[in-house]
Design brief:
This protein is mostly helical. The protein folds into three domains: 54 residues, no CATH class; 55 residues; 44 residues, no CATH class. It contains six helices and no strands. The chain is elongated. The relative contact order is 0.04.
Length: 197
Amino acid sequence: MSKSSWFVEQYDCECGAIMKNTSTHCIEEHLKGKRHRGKLNGLATREERRAERVRKGLKVVLSVAERAVLAATAAERAAEAAAAEAAAADAAAAEAAAAETATERAAETAAESSSVSVTCSTAEAFSLAQYGMDPGIEAEPLCAVLDGHVQKRKAQAEAGEEEPGVPPPKKAATGHWHRFQKWKKKPHHGPRPSGPV
């Protein structure tokens, strides 16, 4: 069969390439109810092929309306990004303010604790607030008690006396019996150590 207008009108192939190709292959595929899987990807109309190119990200000539839509979308995305950046900046400022407030509170607490602490020579790390004492009333007697205790401990240490309730340090195990016990645990069978056991 020759290529004629009758075939073009009667067998309008769904592949869209009928104007370029009226071969037997296109006609047979059309008669079987299938689409021709050629270069045009089996899409019937020009609009569908163009939409497919847009979906795949291929280069397409845009109309004025499409360009306006794309510009509006880009402007909306830019506005959303700016709003997100502003929100992040506000959150960072709030965190900085909270950190500054916490630092100020910590400084105030430290100042109060330093004013409450005992000012005598032996109580740098001692705080009256721990024991619920009034620093204005009981600071001097407490300092005297602490000074007396420290002086007593110094005298005991100089005299070699141990603090009551604290066991003396263990002495190193020296002597033949201890050496023999250590020797028994060793994985060898050498001579027994000489001397009384």
